[in-house]
């Protein structure tokens, strides 16, 4: 698989450093900070994958082109690793479900109790003045963050902005990044873009898993209701000619 090839650790540190135009000590620093996660050979030699190379190039873009400080880069790469892990978990779940199909399991898997329902945290309830008060910001700041795509408030039927609990969490996170960590706005944009991507990916993958589970249930039901095969290998008919 292409994904497996991208995760395969193949480059020693000197080659990886040359590929991304960095000093090997820089790669070691980024590893200590948790920004990259190289593999190890049986002799404990660091080995970098294509995905690690992509991450290193992204770090260079963030620091050199966007001026994001190291604290901001740590936040961004942590989210990127979460996205990578989520994709890995999803693919493992797909393999597990495919295994259930191949084994023709006798009992269908249970479906999530509230699949497809709107998360209460996503329900838009707060007008902008209340949302601004909850996060100790000026309403104009919230409008600026919306224009930058950092938050995505809903709208009432009369087009009034309405903020959800998740929006409030995002605004508090933005304040932490800017005030506590000193991340510039370009870095905050990258972080929030990844946060939105992570949340959307998690919801989409959960829906896909539910869909696959439903498909398994339907297949199991179909298999259990097939008539028994006849002596010549064909399935028996309900009526005889």
From TrEMBL:
SMART domains: HTH_MERR (SM00422). Keywords: Coiled coil, DNA-binding, Stress response. Residues 231-241 have a biased composition (Acidic residues). One of its GO terms (molecular function) is DNA binding. It holds the Pfam family MerR_1. PROSITE patterns: HTH_MERR_2. InterPro entries: DNA-bd_dom_put_sf, MerR-type_HTH_dom, MerR_fam. Gene3D superfamilies: 1.10.1660.10. Residues 76-107, 188-215 form a coiled coil. Residues 10-79, 125-194 form the HTH merR-type domain. Residues 222-241 are annotated as: Disordered. CDD domains: HTH_HspR. NCBIfam families: heat_HspR_dupli (NF047377), HeatShock_HspR (NF047375). PANTHER family: HTH-TYPE TRANSCRIPTIONAL REGULATOR YFMP, REDOX-CYCLING DRUG-SENSING TRANSCRIPTIONAL ACTIVATOR SOXR. This is MerR family transcriptional regulator/heat shock protein HspR. It comes from Deinobacterium chartae.
């Amino acid at each position: 698989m292409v994904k497996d090839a991208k995760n395969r650790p193949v480059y020693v540190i000197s080659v990886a450093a040359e590929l991304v135009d960095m000093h090997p000590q820089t790669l070691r620093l980024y590893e200590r900070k948790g920004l990259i996660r190289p593999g190890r050979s049986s002799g404990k030699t660091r080995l970098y994958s294509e995905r690690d190379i992509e991450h290193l190039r992204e770090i260079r873009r963030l620091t050199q082109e966007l001026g994001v400080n190291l604290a901001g880069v740590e936040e961004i790469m942590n989210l990127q690793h979460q996205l990578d892990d989520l994709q890995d978990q999803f693919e493992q779940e797909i393999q597990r479900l495919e295994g259930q199909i191949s084994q023709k399991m006798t009992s269908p898997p249970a479906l999530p109790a509230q699949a497809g329902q709107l998360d209460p945290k996503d329900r838009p309830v707060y007008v902008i003045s209340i949302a601004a008060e909850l996060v100790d910001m000026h309403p104009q700041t919230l409008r600026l963050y919306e224009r930058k795509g950092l938050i995505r408030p809903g709208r009432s039927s009369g087009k009034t902005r309405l903020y959800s609990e998740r929006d409030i969490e995002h605004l508090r996170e933005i304040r932490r990044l800017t005030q506590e960590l000193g991340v510039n706005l370009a870095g905050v944009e990258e972080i929030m873009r990844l946060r939105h991507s992570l949340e959307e990916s998690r919801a989409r993958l959960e829906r896909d898993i539910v869909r696959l589970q439903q498909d398994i249930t339907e297949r199991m039901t179909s298999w259990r209701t097939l008539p028994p095969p006849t002596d010549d290998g064909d399935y028996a008919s309900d009526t005889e000619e």
